[in-house]
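Table S2 (continued). Query chain:
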Amino acid sequence: MKEAILMKKGIGVLLIAGALLSLVLLAACGSDSSASPGQSEPATSSQPSASEASYVSSAVGANSNSEPQGISVTGEGRASAAPDIVVLGLGVSAKASTVKAANSEVQEAMSDLLDSLEDDGVQEKDIQTSSFSIYPEYDYRNDERILTGYRVSHMLQVKVRDVDKVGEVIDDAVEAGGDLLQMQGISFAIDDTTALRSDAREEAMADARAKAEELASLAGVSLGKPTYITESSYAPSPQPYFDRGMGYAMEEAAVTEISAGELEVVVNVNIIYAID
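Corresponding output:
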């Protein structure tokens, strides 16, 4: 009886093992069927796909189109005129034992200076405070710092629109401010440079055209129309003139003489011409 039972169990184990082996064989056959007999796996290609090739072509075209096409030249034009505005940097400065005393001197002198400018026809809109300062001053003796007083300064930026009257304005300011007057500089300007820029621009365009025509002739090609134009301009002016001893020179002269000279406006253009 026991021998029959053991035999049945052995047969059952063999049946289960055979079923598992069949499943393994079927799985192996299924994976091999995806590739044809004797055919290896396709190699990975380094060539771009159709969409990738189209993108590369577009990128190359964009790069080539970004380069200037044609004849590129620069032209320069200049126009000059006498300045019609003079800018003065002047004011008053005083030193006293206290800030209140120094400020009182400055305010009194500034009132006289403003009255002088008004009498000479300088408009209120053309007078602007450029700086106002209060600070202590010291003297150094035997490595010791000694307070000597306080200095108060009030400086103005004054536009004089009558250039021929600048000398008179300065002389009257010296008389009004007295020993407290400070003159820090003088500069010149042109109020409206529109007409000058137009003249300089016309000259710059003609200069660029002449250069482009010469280049086209040397290259044996025909010059086409402009395809690109840019402009830059500036109006250089002389550096402000500073003279710490100006007050003494003005006292000696009957009338202070100021030389305005001329100012120049410069226009530069960059043009690309097509080649026909």
